[in-house]
From TrEMBL:
InterPro entries according to UniProt: FMN-bd, Ion_transpt_RnfG/RsxG
Keyword vocabulary terms for this entry: Cell inner membrane, Cell membrane, Electron transport, Flavoprotein, FMN, Membrane, Phosphoprotein, Translocase, Transmembrane, Transmembrane helix, Transport
Cellular location(s): Cell inner membrane
Pfam (any one): FMN_bind
Designated gene of the protein: rsxG
UniProt topology in membrane: Single-pass membrane protein
Protein name per the record: Ion-translocating oxidoreductase complex subunit G
Cofactor annotation: FMN
Family: Belongs to the RnfG family.
Length: 225
């Protein structure tokens, strides 16, 4: 019986391997290019929508710390910059009534129980708080989150307060001998908010001239003969 020994197949030529690698590289490049283009297109399409939503959220937060009908200007557009408590530039929004700056609004940040607590506060020309709202935190649900206006009226208690009412030594929670209530089972969070608002008033005291300065009005006065 005659058996035929299989002939081993010839190894692939190096040129074939190079052609395969070249094809795979080009394919991956095309896929990456298409994916990148799709992402860029999506960003271009949704970018303005996201920016508009963010602007709306900021405008809403700013308006919440002012009494109704307290201003007649665009709070987002009317801003100035001062040096914040951390030494960095701080954007200050100015509320006007009939062209006169009647209050300023700015953001502050303090250290809560679970992380930073961010808030926005408004202060009028007399140094009295027009309102405070917490804009971001990671405090314990059911305890520390009572600093939110939607969870508790506690945050409304800052309206009308100043460095004279109460006096600086009373700017603390009652457990620390101060003016403000703490929460049952959660003292660190309200303590952080009280301290942050107090720091905001201290900043107002040192930066008031810059906050209320009106370069446009100054330029007009200097231009008069």
């Amino acid at each position: 019986m005659h058996c035929t020994t299989p002939t081993p197949s010839a190894p692939a030529a190096s040129g074939d391997r190079l052609d395969t690698l070249w094809y795979q590289t080009v394919s991956l490049g095309v896929v990456a290019l298409v994916a990148g283009g799709a992402l860029a297109l999506a960003h271009t399409a949704t970018g303005p929508v996201i920016a508009a939503a963010e602007a709306h959220d900021v405008a809403t937060s700013l308006a919440q710390v002012l009494p109704e009908n307290f201003h007649d200007n665009d709070l987002l557009a009317d801003t100035t910059t001062v040096t914040g408590t951390d030494g960095r530039p701080l954007t200050v929004h100015r509320a006007r009534q009939g062209g006169e700056v009647v209050a300023v609004i700015y953001q502050m940040s303090g250290k809560g129980y679970a992380g930073p607590v961010r808030l926005v506060m408004g202060v009028d020309r007399n140094g009295r708080i027009t309102g405070v709202r917490v804009t971001g935190h990671a405090e314990t649900p059911g305890l520390g989150d009572k600093i939110e206006a939607a969870r508790s009226p506690w945050i409304h208690g800052f309206a009308g307060k100043s460095l004279e009412d109460p006096v600086p030594a009373r700017w603390a929670v009652k457990k620390d001998g101060g003016e403000f209530d703490q929460f049952a089972g959660a003292t660190i969070t309200p303590r952080a908010v009280v301290g942050t608002v107090k720091a905001g008033l201290d900043l107002y005291l040192t930066q008031r001239a810059a906050m209320f300065a009106d370069p446009a009005a100054s330029s007009t006065e200097e231009a008069k003969p």
